[in-house]
Amino acid sequence: SALSAGTGTAVPIDLRIVRSEQGWSVELAGVDPRDLMISHAYRNQLTRLKRGSTDERRHLSTFVNRAKDFIDALEGRKRTLQRVGEYLIDRQLGFVTTGDYSFLKALTRRQMAKDLSLHESTISRATMGKHLQLANGEVVSFEVFFKPALRIQHMIAEILRTEDPDSRLSDEAIAAILAARGVHVARRTVNKYRDKTKLLSSRRRKSA
To answer: Which of 15, 34, 38, 197 has the maximal Cβ count within 10 Å?
Structure first.
């Protein structure tokens, strides 16, 4: 497990993006579907019952087929996650290298699915509720790549962490800093995102 960025909460890592002397690589966590197999006892019993159409055979066949489908689904999900990791290295290299949210580029699951020649629902199932570890060791949710609001919230939090305690930044000033970094939002948008992340206003930060 590892700490998710900005939460201090331990979360399981589903994918790691690693940079070494050999270059970039994607490491998948969890059980390797190739290590799973159908119980030999079930296979042997099915073989013994292959003649005739007994209730026991139908029962065993049902559960063996479910197990096969489960393993196939795991293998498919792993392959998709591998491709997603490689895609992020290619398209979001600045962010996966540094964890700096200003490097995040606009992206949707639909666009990723199109680029990878996959269905959008396939990308959604593979990434929903999942976390990856960036090359700098930071752990983030896959949601940060698909929700622009999360990017802006993280950028606002980073700006406020480095502000001068004696000269607190107003929402207008924060909006201006974001604009200088290529993110153009209105003051009221800064206020809305600051409220969502429970960050105090400049007046309340001064008195805190």
So the answer is: 15
